[in-house]
Amino acid sequence: MKPDVSASFMTPWSRQGTPPGPVFSSASGVHLRTSDGQRCLDLSSGLMCANLGHGHPTVIRAIRQQLDALCFVSPTLQNDSRMEFSRRLCARAPWPGDARVHFTTGGGEANDDAVKIARLITGRQKILCAYRSYHGTSTGAAALTGGSRRWASEQSAPGGVVHFFAPYPYRSPFHTPDRTEEVHRALDHIERIVQQENPDNIAAILIEPVLGSDGLVVYEEGYLSGLRTIASKYGALLIHDEVMCGFGRIGEMFASQRVGVEPDMITFAKGVTGGYIPLGGVLMREEIARIFDGVPFPYGHTYSGHPVCMAAGLGALQAYDDDGLFVRAREIEKWLGSDLAEIQRNIPAIGDIRGIGAFFGIELVRDRETREPVVPWQSGDQTLMSDFQAALLSRGIWVYIKFNLCVIAPPLTVSQKDLQDGLQIFADVLAEFNIRMR
Ligand SMILES: Cc1ncc(COP(=O)(O)O)c(C=O)c1O
To answer: What's the 47 CA to ligand 1 centre distance in angstroms?
Structure first.
C-alpha cells in the first residue's frame, strides 16, 4: 500500500512516504507560491541556484524565442546560441588569455568531465578533494565528494580520489584557535599527502573556493593561493568547483575572481541559468582546450550545448548584467552580516555565523561552549532539524538545511525589506525551538 499520493515519485535526499509538505505551483521574484495561494520567501534560492529570483522576464523571453526557433540539434553540429553563449561566457572567464567551455547538463557531470580531462592531459590518476565537500552524485562526482553524501554511492565508486582536511576554524581539524596557523597547518597537511601519494601521480586538486552545503566555510586568506602554489609546484591542475558559489553568489561573476586565485578549470551549473533550465559546464584555460585541437575531445553528452539551455544562459547573462546582479551580493553581505549578528545575540542556539556575499551559513548548537551540534553531523537522527524546516515552511520561509547548518542564500534580487522580514520569521521560529535545541 502506498502511504500517500506523493509516493508515486521519489523525493531526492528525503525519507519517502512521509506526509507531503506544501505543493508549489508558481513563483515570482523572491517568492514561491503554493497551489492554495500561500506565499513562501525563498531564502535559499531553491538549492542555491535561483540567483536571479523566479520568473525573470529576460530569461523567460530568451527561452521562449529559442523554443520557437530551434529546440535541438546534435551537439556535434554547431548551433548559433551555443556559439554566442560560449563566446560571451569565455570572454568573462578569470584568465587573462583565452578560455573555452565544455557544456554538460549539471554540476556533477561537470566535475566528472573536469576530472577526466585533468587525468587525460596529465597522464596521472589521483585527484585530491576536501573531506568537507559536495561535488555531485553521479558515480564519479560522488567519489569526489568528501561528506557523507558519498557513502551510499560507494558501492561502485571509482578509485583514485584522496581526501584531505581543509581549514574549518569553528571546529578546527588542526587543533588551533589561530586562523592563520590553521591555514599553515592545512597546507602542510595537504603537501604531506601529496608526498605520500606520489607527487608524480597527482592529476588535480579539486575544491569549492567557498565551501557550500557541506559546511559553508569561507577559506582564510592564503589557503586557496597556497593550494594554487602546491598544485603548480607538483605539476597538478587546480580545479575550482563553482557550481554553488559562482554566478554572482559571492559578489563577482566567478568566485575565483573575488578570492583572487586563478584555477586551471572552473566547473559551474546552477546560477548559469538561474536554475531555470538544467545546464553545467567546465571552463578551461585555452592551453588545456588547445590540446584537443589535434586529437578528438573524447567527452560529450546528448545535451552538451543544447540550444534551449544556451538561450537560457544567454538570457541569464543579460539579466545579471542589466540588473547589476554579479556584484549585488556585496550589498546583501552587509545586510546579512549585521542582521544575523543581531539575531545571534538573542538566540543561544546559534553557535556560528559565517559567509561572504549572499552566501551565509548558520550552525545551530546545543551549547555555545561545547559547540555540540543540535543534530549529529553526517548521520544520525535529524528529526529536530526536519521539524524546524517544516515549521519555517509553514510560516512561509524556505531555508536549505543540511544537518545542523542552515544556508541563507537569497536570490540576488532580494530587497532589504524582504530579507529583513524573512530573517525575522526565521528568528521567531528559532526562538520557538529554543527548548528543543538545548
Ligand atoms: C559545489 C557543488 N558541486 C556540484 C554539485 C552537483 O551539481 P548537480 O546537482 O547539478 O549535479 C553541487 C550541487 O549542489 C554543488 O553544490
So the answer is: 9
